[in-house]
Design goal:
There is one protein chain. Helices cover about 55% and strands about 0% of the residues. The protein is mostly helical. The protein has 2 domains: about 40 residues, no CATH class; about 110 residues, Cytochrome Bc1 Complex, Chain D, domain 2, CATH 1.10.760.10. α5 crosses α10. About 10% of the residues have low confidence.
Length: about 170
């Protein structure tokens, strides 16, 4: 029988560590093997949120649907740098666009302007960039980056900005 070298065993340490981590997390979550929560654990974890709860509805506190939340994630990654976290057109890069090119990013919180935008016009602007809809050439096309379902989610989220700005 061939002996396995110590170095070879070292390759399994991350795997064993990961399994131990999962076992500890499952036992700490407060469930017994029968699936019933123990009373003392429930009382001590009253203010905590489990990973399962967070994974099911991370958007619950934001008052967004699942589709809108997916759009928010996309917006935060690709759009917020110019259009701003609040969609008001005052993102980090907005200053550069205004001072260098006299272009202000679109304000999604303007309910009148948003009402005038059709779904198709928004899709075209996202897919092919600002020039496709007669707007700024500095709005890049995202058609090769985003899938159709991601574009739909993004538009659903953009439609929430006028309502969110009224709440604040």
């Amino acid at each position: 029988m061939e002996r396995i070298s110590f170095r070879r065993w070292l390759r399994f340490i991350p795997l064993v560590g990961g399994i131990l981590f999962l076992v500890v997390q499952c036992t700490v979550s407060g469930e017994s093997s029968s699936g019933e929560e123990s009373r003392d654990t429930t009382e001590s974890n009253a203010g905590t949120i489990t990973f399962a709860q967070l994974a099911q509805a991370p958007y619950a506190d934001l008052h967004l649907t699942r589709l809108e939340y997916k759009g928010k994630v996309i917006y935060d990654h690709y759009c917020a740098v110019c259009h701003g976290e609040n969609g008001d057109g005052n993102g980090f890069n907005a200053f550069n666009l205004e001072s260098s090119f006299q272009v202000k990013p679109f304000d999604f919180t303007d309910s009148t302007a948003m009402a005038g935008l059709s779904e198709e016009e928004m899709k075209q602007a996202i897919r092919y960039g600002g020039t496709a809809v007669g707007k700024s050439p500095y709005m890049p096309p995202w058609g090769y980056t985003l899938r159709e379902d991601e574009i739909r989610a993004l538009i659903a989220y953009l439609r929430t900005f006028p309502a969110l700005s009224k709440e604040e």
